């Protein structure tokens, strides 16, 4: 393991850290619906941080879950599930995974374990599933990790996105236990102009958040619409790759928007979040999405949006002991931002934004370890698992 003290780099990067709101928006004529919905006041980046590289050589790591003994389960988009010991020891690929389509944005995505892992050793994964005729879709499987950590046993697919699509993009997908016996699964709308409209179609699970029974995959949604699939929780999403519960047990998500339009939402059951009828930002061509509107009756506004985008990865609400001033703040992986993005929250509103460790690389995953350290995964050919602590602390 290698530890780098960020104090010197902090001084060099402070000016840069204050400049991220100076970049011109892609859609300058669009206006926020309320104060601080975008470009919230910049928070001082004045916290010196230590970075300890726990493991490296990971192939585009994506998901991360801490086990009771301090070991971490890590997914690689190339289709591998690995264990990383507290000392940085990296296991070989764990056997027993279902077939995975690893083209383009596909692959092995998130990994999750329930609170009773010490007793059950049960693991959940989301992944791009190969389907008929070369099509693919997001899927969820579960199995038990063998005692020696080498195999996922009794693996079964419990949920499949419908319909499958001939696309290799916008799978979502993260897994969040809701604390009430359900499992949230986030999906994407598969990117193509032909498929994106299905984010508004409640007879499909493209561009949705679904809630299922983690043991059987049985629907546990609450769409509130008679013709809707019963697993649907909310709809009108583009590509949700971050999700977490706040201190009140409420679900929050973050999704990739178009060119200017990444969104932070607090999805509620039976609500429509607009895509692609309503969105901030533009298409990649520079043209408007649909009618180019940002508000529409019957759709929900994002709590916060970014223009230009940060390209968000996973997120976590900070609830540890190492950073007492960050209690309740939202920590987000910034892929394009190349930083740890921190939002200061006041209730359900954002009051400030900071970007720490700028230049660290494409931050895909953020988790808070049991001891309060912040764990990051960088999305790269030589991806790293990095432990972040206050400078000078016992890391």
Strand order of the largest sheet: 1-2-25-24-23
Radius of gyration: 20 Å
Straight-line distance between termini: 11 Å
Assembly classification? single chain
Uncertain residue ranges: 6-16
Tell how many strands the DSSP assignment holds. Answer: 25
Mean pLDDT: 95
Q: What do you see in this structure?
A:
With 395 residues, this protein is mostly beta strands. Helices cover 5% and strands 37% of the residues. The chain is built from 3 helices and 25 strands. A 5-stranded antiparallel beta sheet has the order 1-2-25-24-23. It has a 5-stranded mixed beta sheet with strand order 10-11-12-13-17, with no helix packed on it. The chain has a 4-stranded antiparallel beta sheet with strand order 6-7-8-9, with no helix packed on it. It is globular. The protein starts with a strand and ends in a 5-residue tail after the last strand. Mean pLDDT is 95; it is low at 6-16.
